[in-house]
Amino acid sequence: MVLLNDHRILFGSALCLFVFLTLYIAVLPALDNQRINKPLPRQSKVLTKEERAGKMVYIENGCVACHTQQVRNVEMDNVFGKRPSIPADFAINRRTDFWRNTANLMGTQRAGPDLTNVGERQPSAEWHLIHLYQPRAAVEASIMPSYEFLFIERDYLQPGDVEVKVPEKFLKNKKKKNRSNA
Question: What local confidence, expressed as pLDDT, does residue 86 receive?
Fold first, then answer.
């Protein structure tokens, strides 16, 4: 059989089969998906510089391991968002950088609640600061780790500091100190 005896024909046939399958299975469906899932008018918006910085903090601190930014169409998510997410919500998202494709931050375990609209559900900045400093002070059953390293403990507040009023039982030093998010 000529196909098996001539390496050029064998290699050429394998290459053609590989290119055909790559186009048919990967490239064409991806192009079709981009055509179908366009951003919805007035729904999707490009992240601002501050939102991108916040997203990087969210990734760097590992929040994406327990939380997701996707509202799913399941009973437990009904309280978290106005509607389930659809692919078009994420159509304008781009890769975070060359090495990581963390554009959508879908989460992995779902140990924590969905963070969609968390600003509407918990609008108090003080609640968020207490929750970051000592999660169990805000939600008793929370399994979230404390992010105390984001805060500076000072004996006296300085101009521009924000005091975080942590309940007495959660203070490390029983001596009252001011915590600031400086």
Answer: 64
